[in-house]
Structures are given as structure tokens and as C-alpha cells.
Amino acid sequence: MILVKRALMLFLVILVSLCSAFPIQRSYAATITRINVVEAETYASATYLIAGKLYSITFESDKADSTKIEFPWLDYSTDNGATWSSISISTTVNNKVSYGAFRLPIDPQLVSILLRYGVTLNPVIGSKSTPERILGPYKVMQPGDPSDFTATPNDDGTVTLRWDDRSNMESHYRIIRSGPDGDKTFDVPGTMDQIGPFSFTDKKTNTSKSTIYVYSLTPIIDQYHLPENLIPATVWATVKTKVPIQLSDIYKEVPLVIPDKSKINIDIPLILINPKYLEKFNVKPGDLDKTAVSGVKLNKKMIALKEGESETLIHSVTPSNAANLKVVWSSDNSQVAEVDSTGKVTGKSSGIAKISVKTEVGNFIDTCMVTVVANDESPPQELQVIQLSDLGGHPASDEILKAVAVGIVTGYPDGTFKPDGSVTRAEFASMLMRGVKPADEGMQLVFKDKDKIGNWAVKAVQQAVKLGIITGYADGTFRPNANITHAEMISMVIRASGLPMGDEQKTGFADDADIPKWSKPAVSKAEETGIIIVGGLPDGIFAPKALTTRAEATSAIVRMLTIMAK
Asked: How many CB atoms lie within 10 A of CB 503?
């Protein structure tokens, strides 16, 4: 026995010596080791980005081959990282290299950005990690179609053209005037890198008599290579100058024999006779007395669909009382997504397609990028294009967008999120379980008011009860339709996180004395971990009895999940 003890002691001494000489290396979480943005067609590194063009983000990591890549996201910032907006990305993985395809929206306000790419790396053994990398800044070239093109007659017989330039790529604009005297060409230089309103006055009109002219406007992009589907459209507008029109002028414009004037009914408006040069524009002279089309807009710039899913885009022609409101729909890749005459878009196969709507008169165009994902992709990797109209400048917008992207929360049908709206206890339980994703089905509920829990929330409440996240009230009720308070919400979040809670201890909140004892350990842990940031709350108070907003609930869940993944 003594020999055994001595041998054991000798072994321990040797082990300590070895550990001192060769310390055990810390096991680091996997990271992104290299990342690059390349053109999808040529694989050349991108020094600038063209909106609407397909690019790929390629990255390599030091992850193990068995580690899964989950929740890829791509954000862009126009204010040097102060705020971020999400953009859809399709990711495929080849061993340790990941390829993410994306397109930037065609938006004249988007001319310089930072990109932020991140993923969750989930190893078979060990903790998850959420590496991310920021790239840029990148100059963004916008190939947008000109909009709001109008031709206004002046009292002196000249015509002033106005339009909204939505491209910073054109070397100049080309204007072609079609009229009784043929076609005349004008160039407007100095528009590259400029976005905004422009005007040009045609002083070479016929100022001796009233004339009908059609002006076409084309941005000339000759210093950048654009795929055919991104070449800006030619738009046009029609005008009748203000000089009194002559009867002979009308008949000069058509290959007809002038009839005996004595047999002409002067009550018939001869201007309805269509000059030949107007026919190619589908314009009748009589339309000039009606409101002209100046543009068209779609309700969404990007959508995401699964194969077989459909969504109807809504267009609006401006002005709404224009003479001709007809439009034509098209897809640049009908094998990925097709569109019918009503704007209904249907996903056909994985990929990205551009849906266009064009006015019959004026050629005004607006577009929507559609990303289609396969049905067999798991929900966490499902692409979701986030367009929520009421998040601008909201401090929780980043967390909300990420929560929407992974299916924790959704917006409303009108395109809003209502960040300041309230949350019921049943709604929060559902949000929390969608974030945690427990494998257990839960347990039977014994709450006295269990019948008041909506069918949509029953499973989530059952799971939360099984995990010890929900215990209910002393009277045996759950109160599913009551709005959840700050204290209740944070307590559920910390229980769901599994983070250890100590004894009740003083927090840094100005109203620390008002925080109930039963929730103090959870509030303290939330403050310690950054799930709640004291400085981000008005007057530094926690307000334990105040009702939780949708933004507060979402932010707490996302921050909790981020901590769990580390």
C-alpha cells in the first residue's frame, strides 16, 4: 500500500512538471480566417459593387469539418457602422469554404457601404461561436432607371425637361426629340456620380407654330460593364408646345390628301388624326390634353420565396389619374421566378431573379429582386427579406432584423413591426421558444385558465413549463392574455438561458429598490451579461412593473441567444 501511495505521488509530481513545461492549450472557438467579395460570374475580387448585380462572399474558417454553419447573415451600413440593415443571402458550404450569393438593392440613396457578414458555427463537441467580419467601405454604383420624366411647354415655345436621376454610373444623358421635322439629338454632360433632379431646356423647337414632340431620355453607361438586365431603361414624355397650332401643320404630319376645307366639320377635333411619328410611342394627340404618366413604383424592392410559394407585388402608377395606367410585367429569369399579368410572383427554383413592371406609356420601370430557396432547406437557413417600415432609427432595429431573419418574430401584413406595441405572456412564450428551439414537446398544462391559451401558443407554453421557464401565479393561473411586465419577461429570459443566478444583489438601476425580490437575481444577471444595458434605458430605470414592448422582448431574446452561442 505504501509503495502504491509513493508511486501515485511520484506520478502527480511528474504530471505537474509536464503541465508547467507544456501548458495545456486553451480551446478557441472557430473563427473566420479569410473573407472576400467576388463577382459571381468572373470570381474577380470586387473593388466596388454594382447594385442589382450578383456577388458572392467567400470565406474560410478554422472550423472542424463536422462543424455546421448556421444562421448566416449579411448586413450593410451607410453610416460607418452606426446602424445596420439586413439583406438576403443564399449560402452553400464546401468543406471549410462558404459561398454566399447576394445582390444589393437598386436604391439611389445607397452609394457607399460597409458589409458585415456573420455565421453561427455549431461544432459536434464544444460551444457554438458567432464570428463576424466587416468589409469595406465599398463604393456602390447605382444603375437605376430615371424617374419622374416630364416635358413642360414654356410660353415662348421652348420645352423644359425635368427628371430624377437615379444612377451615378452614366457618363451623360442622351435626349432624342421626335417631331414633324424628324429626330434631333441632345446630350446632357456632367451627370456621372450625381444623383438627384436634373433639367434641360430645348431651345431649338419650332417657336412659330404649335408642335407635338416626343422626348426620349437615356442614361449612357459606357465606362462600366452591365449585364443586359441591369441596363437602365429609356423613358419618354410627350408635349404640345404653346404656340397656336395651325390646320396645315396637322395635315403635314400625316400622308393624307388635304380635303376640301369647305367639307370639314369644324366641330371635329382634327388633332385626333395621329401623326406617324407618334404611332411608335402608342400616343394619340388627344392624350396630350390628359394627365401624363411620370413614373411607377412597387411596394417592395426585395422578397424571398420558397419553391412553389407566391406573393403578389403591388404597383402604383403616378399620377394616379394618368390617361394610361396600363403596365407590363416581366422576369429576367423565369426559371427561378415567374410573374403573371397581375404581379403575382411564383418561386420556381433556387436562385435570384429580377421582376420588372413597366408602364405602357413612358417606359417607366421599377424592379424587385426575388430570392427563391429550396423547400428542403432548414428553417434557420431560410432566406427572409426584411422590410419593416417603422424601424428607422430605432435602437433595437439590429436585434429585430436578426430575430425576423431566423423566425423568432414576424412583422405585420402592412410591412410594419410595431416595436412599441405590447406583448402578452402567451406571445412572449412563443417568441422565446422559437428562439431556444427545445427538442422536448413539453408537458400537460394544469393551469386553471389553460383553456384561454390559444392553440397557436399551447405547445410553446407546454415547452416553457417543462423547462421550468414558466411557473404561473400563486392562484394557479397563467394569464396568457395579460401583457407581460419587465420583471416577468427578464426572469423568463434568464431561466431560458441556463445562466447561473446568485442571490439577490443590488443592481445598477436607479429604481433598484422597486425590483421584486423574486426577480432581482434574474435582473442582476441580465445587467451583468448585457442582456439589459442600463445606459440604454430612460433615466437608467428598470421599471419592473412596466409593460414590455415588442422591441424590448425581441432585443432581450436575441442578446440572450448571442451569449448562449459564445
From this structure: 7
Residues whose CB falls within 8 Å of the CB of residue 167, separated by 6 or more in sequence, listed in order: 108, 142, 143, 144, 145, 146, 195, 219, 221, 232
Task: Please tell me the predicted confidence (pLDDT) of residue 85.
Answer: 81
Nearest Cα to 388, choosing from 404, 372, 373?
A: 404
HSE toward the beta carbon, residue 438, CA cutoff 13 A: 23
Indicate the burial class of 502 (C-beta count within 10 angstroms; 0-12, 13-18, 19 or more): exposed
Which residues have C-beta within 8 Å of that of residue 328, sequence separation ≥ 6?
Answer: 357, 358, 360
SS3 350: coil
pLDDT given for residue 113 in this prediction = 94
What are the cell numbers at 430? 412563443
* Rounded Cα distance, 305 and 546, in Å: 38
* Inter-CA distances, 2 with 5, 12, 14, 51, 235, Å: 5, 16, 18, 79, 99
Question: What is the predicted pLDDT for the residue at 411?
Answer: 72
Provide the sign of the torsion angle of the four alpha carbons 390, 392, 398, 402, taken in this order: positive
Question: Domains in the chain, ordered, with CATH?
Answer: 32-141 (2.60.40.10), 147-289 (2.60.40.10), 295-381 (2.60.40.1080), 397-565 (no CATH)
Tens digits of per-residue pLDDT, 487-514? 999 999 999 988 888 776 788 888 889 9
- The alpha carbon of 492 is separated from its chain's Cα centroid by a whole number of angstroms, namely 31
Helix axes 550-565, 486-497, angle to 10 degrees: 20
Cell of 241: 408646345
pTM of this prediction?
0.51
Angle at 546 between CA 540 and CA 547, to 5 degrees: 125
Three cell numbers written together for 247: 390646320
Cell matching residue 67: 462543424
User: Going by C-beta distance under 8 Å and a sequence separation of 6 or more, which residues neighbour residue 537?
Assistant: 509, 543
What integer pLDDT is reported at residue 564 of this predicted model?
A: 78
Going by DSSP bridges, is the β-strand pair 302-306/365-373 parallel, antiparallel, or unpaired?
A: parallel
Q: Which residues on neighbouring strands pair with residue 68, listed in sequence order?
A: 122
Q: What's residue 218's pLDDT?
A: 94
Three-class secondary structure of residue 510 per DSSP: coil
User: How far is the C-alpha of 505 from the C-alpha of 269, rounded, in Å?
Assistant: 89
Cβ atoms within 10 A of the Cβ of 291, count? Answer: 13
Which positions of the chain have pLDDT values less than 50?
12-16, 18-28, 93-98, 250-273, 377-386, 535
Model pLDDT for residues 355-397, shown as the tens digit of each residue? 999 998 888 888 887 877 766 543 333 333 345 677 777 788 7
Q: Are 437 and 121 in contact (CB under 8 A)?
A: no
**550: CB partners within 8 A, 6+ apart:** 409, 417, 418, 419, 420, 421, 422, 423
